From TrEMBL:
Pfam families: MauE (PF07291). Its main location: membrane. The chain crosses the membrane at residues 6-27, 47-69, 75-92, 112-134, 146-169. InterPro entries: Methylamine_util_MauE. This is Methylamine utilisation protein MauE domain-containing protein. It is found in: Membrane. The keyword Membrane applies. It comes from the Bacteria. It comes from Amycolatopsis mongoliensis. The lineage of its organism: Bacteria, Bacillati, Actinomycetota, Actinomycetes, Pseudonocardiales. Residues 5-133 form the Methylamine utilisation protein MauE domain.
């Protein structure tokens, strides 16, 4: 039964994180344009960054929707894992090249993508991939559904506020922020 609870908590976690990320990017033309502009330091894009930004938000929304349903949650977790691995590769590449890419993961954080974002996305990818390997298990009772939902929601809040939490651990930067 613990496997079924873990899978449900992961579905809640991934669903909330990807829904908030998509809504943060699709909250208006300005937000989407800001997200597209934040990608420019990654290098040249053959199609421009706006279509890639829009596609990213749509894929995030699709992953959030897919994990919501028992019949499609495995597809959603697989999509989320793949997207997170791509995000990790992009962040690692920008760090290796010394490029300052502004984080627009959830809209407007303003932080520069760095090791904290890489760790967050790697943890989320590992969590989602692990849930893919767990058998669905038996139906859960209301109390275990509630517990799994709370764990998933708490983990999502931690992931969404990761920049602030990393700032608490890291301390003030050179600008005193």
């Amino acid at each position: 039964m613990i496997g079924a609870q873990f899978v449900l908590a992961t579905r809640v976690l991934i669903g909330l994180v990807f829904a908030v990320a998509a809504v943060g990017k699709l909250a208006g033309r300005v937000r989407l344009a800001e997200f597209a502009a934040s990608l420019a330091p990654l290098g040249r894009s053959p199609v421009g960054w706006l279509p890639i930004a829009a596609a990213t938000a749509v894929v995030e929304l699709a992953a959030a929707a897919l994990v919501a349903f028992p019949a499609t949650y495995r597809l959603g977790l697989g999509l989320a894992t793949a997207v997170l691995v791509v995000f990790c590769a992009a962040i690692a590449r920008s760090m290796r090249l010394g490029r300052r890419v502004t984080c627009r993961c959830f809209g407007r954080s303003g932080a520069v993508l760095g090791p904290a974002h890489l760790v967050r996305n790697a943890l989320l990818a590992a969590w989602a991939a692990t849930a893919l390997a767990v058998p669905p298990g038996p139906a859960l009772g209301l109390d275990t559904v509630a517990a799994a939902g709370l764990v998933g929601t708490f983990a999502a809040v931690v992931a969404i506020t990761w920049d602030s939490l990393a700032g608490l651990v890291r301390g003030p930067d050179a600008a005193g922020r």
